[in-house]
Design brief:
The complex is a heterodimer of chains A (about 325) and B (about 260). Chain A has 14 helices and no strands. Chain A folds into three domains: about 30 residues, no CATH class; about 55 residues, no CATH class; about 210 residues, MetI-like (MetI-like fold, Orthogonal Bundle). Chain A starts with a helix and ends in a 6-residue tail after the last helix. In chain A, helix 3 packs across helix 7. Chain A is globular and about 80 Å long. The longest helix of chain A has about 30 residues. Chain A is an all-alpha fold and about 325 residues long. With about 260 residues, chain B is α/β, with parallel strands linked by helices. Chain B contains nine helices and ten strands. In chain B, the strands form two sheets. Chain B has a six-stranded mixed sheet with strand order 6-7-8-3-9-10, sandwiched between helices. Chain B has a four-stranded antiparallel sheet with strand order 2-1-4-5, covered by helices on one side. In chain B, helix 3 packs parallel to helix 5 and helix 5 runs parallel beside helix 6. The interface between A and B is medium-sized, with 23 and 27 residues.
């Protein structure tokens, strides 16, 4: 504790200045590099776009996560536009200065990859889980093949494929953005895990529920959406959030293909001669960031489980 | 051997329209197990049929073939004049007109009692919410539990849940109601409340096909009792003759077992 706060130096221009002031932690490195940790190499003049995206994110997430938000119904409709608006804000074009995605970095990069992965892996995972149980052989074989292949390969391998090998498979001259490729790979990877988690939930639904839905004349999709999936998803919440958290932390792996997430920024900072040897401070800071995000997700999943509990409320 | 009532085979084909359900030479196998053997059955509109028999005799399978929860492999089944085939459209049309009450209720645990009742009218019949709610409340009153409308099924007793399940089927205003052992999963003191509802329903002209061992119910409301064993219809008769004057050894044995315990 003393080291963390009482004896720590919070300002200073280098490690030497820190140790001259106090014997504890040198948090000045974080202060000095906070912008780098947050925005990566995003051009300073355009950082308002990242900030605005964050504000939009908060305004989109609240109505989705909590029921008691005013005008929730409208907010949910507007939420559909969020990915497009944010992508436009961050990448630019159409009136905004374009920013290359290799300038993305830091927490912003973590959030971009994490939220894209989380947002898209859930619906894709649901479709794969349903596909795996489908009576149509083509859909079933595709789903099983996809899930087993993606699950059988480490994420790092997929990221390498995304960063290097994909170019060999594409026609010459066709390239697409590295970040986009990473996003796709991370999403697919998480989808395969998500599918299996949701399949577990689907299998826990008693046969009678399907029969009751069928006997009413509900279509397959209505029965799934109204009866089976709400129950299956509820059962799967712990597994789904587990996958989310895993995915979120796996975003740090992008460091190996040259994208600078907070961990990458941290390592770069430590390479700076002014700040060498401060690894404890830097990694602790990054760890705290991840812990706050992940713990938040875990708490929310608890809240959701309690809210959806309808079995024994006598 | 199997005694078939005269009325079954003759006019079946031409007059399918006047019957609620017709089954002609229906066979079903589960793998190698022959679950239904040459079933012939005509159910008139408004008729109350009680099906009984030892467990594993195929009675549940038979009524589950009527709304295609089980698929028959041979023979012909028509419901309200529509033949059951692989055509999913036909199946969905038939299912709209055929309500089913299950042994284990199969209420949707994540929805309130009222939402259980309004789900199908809203999504299948495309009924406006207010109207669906009104109809649901009307039927919940009929089964005498309107005060439970906003509770979840898990908060109700078995008998109450089964009455909700009946109300849920009625909300679709079906022409035929299938009951698959509706009282078998209930404690004895709850059986009566469910039977009372069923007896009241029977007086209202809806076609009912009930798999049940409630012989009192069979005698009160049944127009015809069908006894099945080993996937075959062994005997069918009006309730009085069926109970007082059974024809077949297997029927006699079955009746002596369920009546003398």
């Amino acid at each position: 504790m003393d080291w963390l706060f009482l004896d720590a130096a919070f300002t200073g221009g280098s490690r030497d200045e820190c140790s001259a002031k106090a014997g504890g932690a040198c948090w000045a490195v974080i202060g000095e590099r906070l912008n780098l940790f947050t925005y990566g190499f995003y051009p300073a003049a355009e950082r308002w776009r990242v900030n605005l995206s964050l504000v939009l994110l908060i305004f989109t997430l609240f109505p989705i996560l909590f029921e008691k938000v005013p005008y929730r119904k409208y907010a949910l409709h507007i939420a559909v536009a969020f990915p497009f608006v944010t992508a436009w804000l961050l990448v630019g074009g159409l009136g905004l200065t374009p920013v290359e995605t290799d300038q993305f970095g830091g927490f912003m990069l973590t959030l971009v990859i994490g939220i894209t992965g989380i947002g898209f892996s859930l619906p894709i995972g649901i479709l794969l889980a349903l596909g795996r149980q489908s009576k149509l052989p083509a859909i079933q074989i595709f789903s099983i093949g996809f899930i087993e292949f993606i699950r059988g390969v480490p994420l790092i391998t997929l990221l390498f494929v995304a960063s290097t090998m994909l170019n060999y498979f594409l026609p010459p001259g066709v390239t697409f953005d590295l970040l986009l490729r990473v996003l796709i790979m991370v999403t697919l990877f998480a989808s395969a895990y998500m599918a299996e988690v949701i399949r577990g939930g689907l299998q826990a639904i008693p046969k009678g529920q399907f029969e009751a839905a069928d006997s009413m004349g509900l279509h397959y999709w209505s029965a799934m959406r109204l009866i089976v999936l709400p129950q299956a998803m509820k059962i799967s919440i712990p597994g789904i959030v587990n996958t989310f958290i895993g995915l979120y932390k796996d975003t740090t792996l992008v460091i190996i293909i040259g994208l600078l997430d907070p961990l990458g920024i941290g390592r770069a900072s430590l390479a700076d001669t002014k700040w060498t040897g401060l690894s404890t401070e830097v990694y602790l800071f990054v760890a705290i960031f991840f812990f706050i995000s992940c713990f938040g997700m875990a708490r929310y999943s608890q809240h959701l489980e309690n809210k959806l509990e309808t079995d024994h409320k006598r | 051997m199997t005694q078939k009532p005269e009325s079954v085979n003759e006019e079946t084909k031409s007059a399918a329209g006047k019957y609620a359900v017709t089954m002609r030479d229906v066979h079903k196998w589960y793998g190698k197990f022959h679950a239904l053997k040459n079933i012939n059955l005509n159910v008139e509109v408004g008729e109350k049929i009680v099906i009984c028999g030892p467990s594993g005799s195929g009675k549940s399978t038979l009524i589950r073939c009527i709304n295609r929860l089980e698929e028959h492999q041979q023979g012909e089944i028509t419901v309200e004049g529509i033949e059951l085939s692989h055509d999913i459209k036909n199946i969905e049309i038939i299912r709209r007109e055929v309500g089913m009450v299950f042994q284990h209720f199969n209420l949707f645990p994540h929805l309130t009692v009222l939402e259980n009742c309004t789900l199908a009218p809203i999504w299948v019949r495309k009924m406006p919410l207010a109207e669906a709610n009104a109809i649901a409340m009307q039927y919940l009153e009929r089964v005498k539990i309107p005060e439970q409308a906003d509770k979840y099924p898990g908060q109700l007793s078995g008998g109450q849940q089964q009455r909700v399940a009946i109300a849920r089927s009625l909300c679709m205003k079906p022409r035929i109601l299938l009951f698959d052992e509706p009282t078998s999963a209930l404690d004895p003191e709850m059986i009566k409340e469910v039977l009372d509802v069923m007896i009241q329903l029977a007086s209202e002209g809806i076609t009912m096909i009930c798999v049940t061992h409630e012989m009192g119910f069979a005698r009160t409301v049944g127009d015809r009792v069908i006894f099945m064993d080993n996937g075959e219809i062994i005997e069918e008769n009006n309730p009085d003759d069926f109970f007082l004057n059974p024809q077949h050894e297997r029927t006699k044995l079955f009746l002596s077992q369920i009546l003398n315990h």
